[in-house]
Amino acid sequence: MQLFLAFIIAASTILKDVQCLPVKIDAETKFIVLQNEGMEPTVLDCDYNLNDTDSFLTVKWFRNDKTIYQWIRGSHPAPIPEFKSDVDSSYESSTDPNKQYSSLALINPSIDSTGDYKCVVQTRTETITVHKSVQVIDVRNYTLNMYRYQIQNETQLECTVSNVFPKPTITITSEDDDIVKVVANEPQENEDGYFNATTFAAIQDDDEDTDAHKCVVTFEGYSQNLTTILTSGSCKSCTDYRILFLSCLVYYLFSNFKILD
């Protein structure tokens, strides 16, 4: 018992001068939708309140644990050279001298701007950490197509999207609930960091009524999507590649035997 009490006293002596470090996590992801021109800076605020306002104060911003910006109270911000074109270091977030340049103003965003951001505020007696999350959406040069095929006795739909960021999810829906099977391939990342994806669906199409099928491309956590609709009647309008192949073969043979002019 005496040994246990001695341990508690020793531990209390060691820890009495150690402060818990406040950590704030912003659960809401900030989305940046890339545009071709005229984009306003995206501002990430560092929300903190200081008890120690008299001593040294520094604010550092990190992206994926790599320093991209820092400010020392009483001086102008010092952007990290590697990220000089990514940050507007002249942006003033407050008239309060303790927060004047504390925010991070992102400019010229790209898909590389996606990441986990961290603001670390330090004085001689305090350390405050604030986490932010940024997700870039780039669909400026995307293509989205939907096709309908007749393969033997099965009608298939194919939806493809290309050149999007981040990784997409493709969903094919039907007004008539005639989808019987869906195969979604894993999106593939190209050399530029953008994604291409394809999803197939087999449908039960036993009538000649007009059918409408929708392909929807979504991105996790983002409310907007890409959509295309394919409307068709009976499979008389579908493409049967066996017939197409035979037609081409017959044309080729007739041409070589000079049966056709």
Automatic annotation (TrEMBL):
Residues 1-20 form the signal peptide. SUPFAM superfamilies: Immunoglobulin. The keyword Metal-binding does not apply. Residues 22-129 form the Ig-like domain. Keywords: Signal. The keyword Lyase does not apply. This is Ig-like domain-containing protein.
